[in-house]
Sequence to fold (225 residues):
Amino acid sequence: MGVRLAPSSIWGILRRHGIEPSPRWTGPSWTQFLRAQASSMLACDFFTVDTALLRRLYVLFFIEIDTRRVYVTGVTANPIGAWVVQQARNLNSALAVRARPIRFLIRDSDTKFTSSFDEVFRADRIRIIRTPVRAPRANAFAKRFVGTVRRECLDRMLIFHRRQLEMVLAVFIEHYNTHRPQRSLDQTPPLSIVPAARPTSHPDATQLRRSDRLGGLIHEYKLAA
Fold:
C-alpha cells in the first residue's frame, strides 16, 4: 500500500496484541534466572565487624542459593588476595560432597576478589557472575544473610578480637544451618533432614525444651520425644 512503518511502531502494535518480540530480543529476568539455576548457584560476599578495641575485621562467607546453607570460610584483619584465594580452595572440599555440582558463583566487583580467586572456581567449571556496581539486589541472598547475622547476633554483642568472633560465628552458623527456620524452605532449616512438623496450636508446656546458645542470646526450642 506504499505505507512505511517504523520498527518501533510495529513492535508497539504486536505488544498491544500480546505478541512478544523474537526470543533473541528478550530473556529471563534476573529473578527467573536465579529460580531456574538455584540448585547449582553459590553466592559470596564480605561483611565487616568493628571490635570494641576499634579494630576492623573482615568475614568472608558463601551461601548456597537453593538450600540457604552458609559457609563462613575465614575471618581476618587483612584480607589480601592470597588469603582470599586460600579460602576459596578450602571451600572446594566442602562443595565436593554436594549431590548437584555448583555451576555459577555470584560475587560483586570488590577488588579483594582477584583473578586468582576466580581461577580456583573456573578450574572446577564454575562460571563467575559479577554483579553490577551499586546493585545490592543482584546479590540479595548474601546481603539478606548479612542483615540476619547482624540483627540476631553481632549487633547484640561486644567483640574484642578475632578468635572471639570466630567462635561466635561458628555457634551462630551452626544454629542458622541446623535450627533456624527459613520461610523459603517451608519453615525448615537449611540442613534439615526431616520435614517440618505440623504446627501445634496448644503445645504442652511440660514437653517443651529450650536450649540457650551464646549465653542466652539465641534460644532453640523443641518438643520432647
